[in-house]
Write a structure and sequence with these properties.
11 strands; Putative hemin transport system permease protein HrtB; alpha+beta; transport; single chain
Length: 400
């Protein structure tokens, strides 16, 4: 092995493996936390952005007591079935301040040929819908024919493949891009097909949910530009007083999600800051003690003709090698956990969760690797300055 800065640095690491691996482990933990927390933060923010871009309705009218169910279906894809009469949509449409009102049907499957878990079926009125159709049409050719469906990004199945719901076969006509919302585990179809399945749903559960075919689950409402959302919400409440109908403001749902996200991010930021501050202090102490203990070694090198720049280069190279190794291991582990357990994080956090694209993911990887690598030299810079300010040849003479 050569006597250059790189050769001497590698020899020092090999001679003191316990110290080197301990510092690598600390750096690896930091980079793991940095990458994974940054991944979660970006995914949550992307999910909120995706939600705001797809919430075309100002008001959502649902059966009373099911406001949390519609929120769960839209945000997290939690399968639910709930119904009221279609006349609700007609009456809402006639209220002052309402520009458009379109019904939808939410139906939970018991099982499906494509998946091992229940799915959310969403029946859409393609003639009147304004909240879902605009972004569906940008990815899939509409309207759908009989027996055709559109599936979310997380549902298995290829284009034109067949799946079954309640024993009925359907052909996958299109697949949506990832949204980070409940739509990723949802299936879209026309209203008539969903009504037929709803009838089968009643028979299977032996709990009739409607006496006729005029059942719907919700009404998506778009208000006129000059309309006051709260005033229209009050008008809907008065119109259906005692009839079991509840109007939910979309902004209210968005505000609750945003507030929960901000609270979560606050604790994440505090945790990251405390962890990095503590680790930086620990690294400063470790490098300070280590360099002090190695003064005799450095003094010997000075006597042999090594200049201060040479000593500084040896120390910095050793520190860079240690931190780069730890940063690489921690970042790779963080990336693996993010890729393998991303869906699990989404379910655990119960919030819109949209993972970043490949380019952003790689940029995040590079940033965590760079920060972890440079943290060592930054933590050791004060100790190196102190070391360079003393004449090590004299230290060697004192030790003799």
């Amino acid at each position: 092995m050569g006597l250059g800065a790189m050769g001497l640095a590698r020899r020092n690491i090999r001679n003191k493996p316990g110290r080197a691996y301990g510092l690598m482990a600390l750096t690896a933990i930091l980079c793991f936390v940095l990458f994974l927390s940054s991944f979660l933060i970006l995914s949550l923010k992307n999910g909120i952005h995706s939600l705001s871009g797809r919430m075309g309705a100002d008001l959502i009218v649902v059966p009373e007591g099911y406001d949390s169910k519609i929120t769960g279906a839209i945000l997290r894809g939690e399968p639910n079935s709930f119904f009221f009469d279609q006349s609700v949509a007609e009456r809402v449409r006639a209220l002052p301040g309402v520009e458009e009102a379109s019904p939808q049907i939410f139906l939970a499957t018991l099982s499906a040929g494509c998946c091992s878990y229940p799915l959310q079926l969403i029946g859409v009125d393609f003639d009147t819908d304004f909240s879902v159709v605009p972004w569906l049409s940008s990815q899939v050719k509409l309207p759908l024919k009989e027996g055709e469906i559109i599936v979310g990004a997380s549902i298995e199945g290829t284009y034109n493949s067949e799946v079954k719901f309640f024993g009925r076969p359907f052909k996958i006509k299109g697949r949506l891009a990832k949204t980070g919302m409940g739509f990723d585990t949802s299936v879209f179809m026309d209203m008539e097909t969903t009504r037929v399945l709803a009838s089968e749903f009643q028979k299977l559960l032996e709990t009739p949910v409607a006496e006729d075919e005029r059942l719907i689950s919700s009404v998506m409402v778009r208000l006129q530009k000059d309309a006051d959302p709260k005033a229209v919400q009050t008008a809907v409440t008065e119109e259906f007083r005692g009839e079991g109908v509840y109007p939910l403001l979309s902004k209210q749902m968005m505000s609750e999600v945003s507030a929960n996200l901000q609270n979560l991010l606050f604790y994440v930021y505090v945790l990251i800051a405390l962890l990095w501050l503590l680790s930086f202090v620990v690294l400063m102490l470790v490098y300070s003690i280590s360099l002090r203990e190695r003064r005799r070694e450095f003094a010997t090198l000075r006597v042999l003709g090594a200049g201060r720049k040479k000593l500084r280069a040896i120390c910095l190279t050793e520190i860079l090698l240690i931190n780069a190794g730890g940063a690489f291991c921690g970042t790779v582990l963080g990336a693996a956990v993010a890729l393998l357990f991303g869906p699990a994080f989404s379910k655990l956090l119960r919030m819109p969760f949209l993972t970043p694209g490949v380019s952003v993911f790689l940029l995040l990887f590079a940033a965590a690797l760079l920060v972890g690598t440079l943290m060592g030299p930054l933590a050791a810079i004060f100790s190196l300055r102190e070391l360079n300010q003393k004449e090590l040849a004299l230290v060697s003479r004192e030790n003799d």
